[in-house]
Design brief:
Layout lengths: L2 H6 L24 H6 L5 E6 L8 E6 L5 E7 L9 H6 L1 E2 L5 E2 L2 H8 L4 E9 L7 E6 L3 E2 L8 E2 L40 H5 L40 E10 L1
Antiparallel strand pairs: 1-2, 2-3, 3-5, 3-10, 4-5, 6-7, 6-10, 8-9
The chain binds calcium ion (CA).
Calcium ion binds next to loops.
């Protein structure tokens, strides 16, 4: 579908109330949330998108500010992210709350678009600054046979220094994804996914664990390898939001 046709296909549908989530129809905003932003959609919430490479539309959580971001992961409430390879491929959770969108949907969205990978951590206590963020340019994943290998060009310098998250991804660039039931890491004697209780792009192993177990009410940094952590950051993470912002 051409960009013009995609724009013309913008469909405004009311969110239908009092129905099961699987029956609810959400406004369609085009190929991804970034296109929704460009065509005038506003707000934050669940919308329907249909990437060119997808066989059918699906629901995503959009933040229609800052260029429009499509969430691929959200962790605020502490659902279990220690899941199987299949779960990470197909997605889990609910887009209205904590979820992983799923590699096949992420790849469909990213297939013909140039996207930034945006990762934002929020903290408890909620104080100065309340979040830190890093944006990585030209995010791409390889296919399942190649282990959904993580590639990107570089960290952008878009954030002010006080809100800039330390770069913990460049050192795992090129790594395959691993889950507890599929060990693709560089640790010859063990499973990084089992050590850290999470799916992630591990080498041997990691200095960040955004899919680890969340403890939103805790204040001090934990030494538990299965909890969410981000080296270089002295505070306990209370939320993780990961999104794509595409052109
Ligand atoms: Ca291993």
């Amino acid at each position: 579908m051409s960009a013009e046709n995609r724009t013309c296909s913008l469909i405004t549908m009311s969110r239908l109330q009092n129905m099961n989530s699987s029956d609810v129809t959400y406004r369609q905003v085009g190929h991804d949330c970034s296109e929704g932003f460009r065509t005038g959609a506003t707000g934050k919430g669940v919308f329907t998108i249909e990437p060119d490479s997808s066989s059918s539309p699906f629901q995503v959580y959009c933040d229609l500010r800052f260029g429009g971001r499509t969430y691929i992961q959200r962790q605020d409430y502490g659902i279990n992210f220690n899941r199987t390879w299949r779960d990470y491929r197909e997605g889990f959770g609910n887009v209205t709350g904590d979820h992983w969108l799923g590699f096949e949907k992420i790849r469909a969205m990213n297939d013909r678009a140039i996207c930034q990978f945006v990762i934002r951590l929020t903290y408890n206590p909620r104080c100065c600054p309340t979040y830190r963020q890093a944006n990585f340019k030209h995010f791409k994943l390889t296919d399942e046979d190649d282990g959904y290998r993580l590639t990107f060009d570089s960290l952008t310098a878009g954030q002010s220094s006080k809100n800039r998250l330390t770069d913990m991804l460049t050192e795992v660039k090129g790594a395959k994804f691993s889950t507890y039931d599929r060990d693709n890491d560089d640790n010859p004697t063990g499973s990084c996914s089992q050590i850290h209780g999470a799916g992630w792009w591990f080498k041997n192993c990691t200095r960040c664990n955004p899919n680890g177990r969340l403890n939103p009410d805790a204040v001090n940094v934990s030494a538990d390898p299965e909890e969410v952590f981000w080296d270089g950051d002295p505070r306990r993470v209370s939320g993780v939001h990961t999104a794509l912002q595409c052109k």
